[in-house]
Amino acid sequence: MKVKIESYIGVLIFFLFFSSFTFACKPCSEDVSVYIVKQRKPVFDKPYSSRERNGYVTFKADIGHFKVSNVKIIELYPEDIPLSVVEEMILKTQYKLISNRSGHIACDSKSQELSFVFRLPL
């Protein structure tokens, strides 16, 4: 009887341990929303000043859970901001992908268009 109870406990612990991996079986949805968790501030290598208080960038990128790639800047204001500063800000921003379909996990988002407004040094 004692062996039977121990085997039931062992099976129960086994299923509890592996039940956290059941989410891996959910289908992947490409219908996702991209949220900005924390937007990175622009970091300038050289002194930069502008008469404008805010900058604005619109870009397209492939956004994954841990990777941003294929960044293409569509619009940038003011235009004299170094592209490397803006690209670094885009790449180091933290994103979150959420599936719009119930019961699905979020896949990577391809050619997602986003816009950022950011502060500029005076």
UniProtKB/TrEMBL annotation:
Put simply, this protein is called TonB C-terminal domain-containing protein
